[in-house]
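Reminder: ligand-aware prediction takes two inputs, not one.
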Amino acid sequence: MSVSVTRSDDPAPAGPSVAQVRKTATRLLGSTSKNSYDPELDIDWAAPVDLDKKFMPYERVSLYGTPLWKRMTDEQRRELSRQEIASVASTGLWFEIILIQLLARWAYHQDPQDPRTQYALAEIGDETRHITMFAKSIASMGAPTYRPRRLVRQLARLYKATAAGPALFAPVLVAEEITDRLQREMVNDDEVHPLIRMVNRIHVVEEARHVRFAREEVARQMAAIGPIGKVISNLASAVVAAFIAESMISREVYAQVGLDPVEAVKAARSNPHFHQTRRWTAEKIMTFLNDQGMLTWYSRPIYELAHLV
Ligand SMILES: [Fe+2]
Ligand SMILES: [Fe+2]
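Here is what comes back for the chain with fe (ii) ion:
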């Protein structure tokens, strides 16, 4: 499935004004105070975790549909779904820590009386709870915390220390929206483990606010940025988004299931079904980035390489 809503090299549409984003931020602050969770209290962490359940819909597992998947036992399939959701949660919480630094750096330059600054701080609060929730859910599943590869971790240090403008918010949106699409699908899936469904339910509610805020900021900033800034921003956003997508499923999950990691990584990387899942998770955000003029002749190939379009 490819995104072709407008011609990708068209200029970005007129974005919202600062006053409009402030209005949105004020509304989101109200929603944060009324509709937030405390995973410490809202999830029964003492409940035993039944390892005989699926932890993800099988059709979203990276090896689904491959000859290797057909050879795997039922137990290995269940186990891989558990390790892969643990990997998604691990990468998610890693990126949330990056996001906290990005938001804190951004807030540093803003007026604390501005509702946008206050909302950025409220979002940091949400993310601190999410990180602990994901970490506790990984522990409850009896899975390790997966870490992105060393090169990715080093590049992320540069990104979180320097990102500004649309390149600050656009990759955040990609990370949040691809995870969100996966999580929304699982919330009402009876076959998926109840712990995962509850974690996803909490995350989906709170992320909807983050997505709304980041989308408005990207639209406002893309309309205001100059042509050179746009090229840098579009390239940086695409590279960071591609690394995030590539880091979602750790290479280490396969060994945990008793598969040959080299064979399994090769099978997943060339699995058209998995590419299709990637494009499905990114469908909404890629349409948005395209509408903002962020999918161009030079940035689109990077998204294509990561199977995001
Ligand atoms: Fe989050
Ligand atoms: Fe978020």
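The pocket of fe (ii) ion (ligand 1) is lined by residues 96, 127, 130, 203, 207 (CB under 6 Å). The CA atoms of residues 25 and 65 lie 43 Å apart. We will return to this case in the review session.
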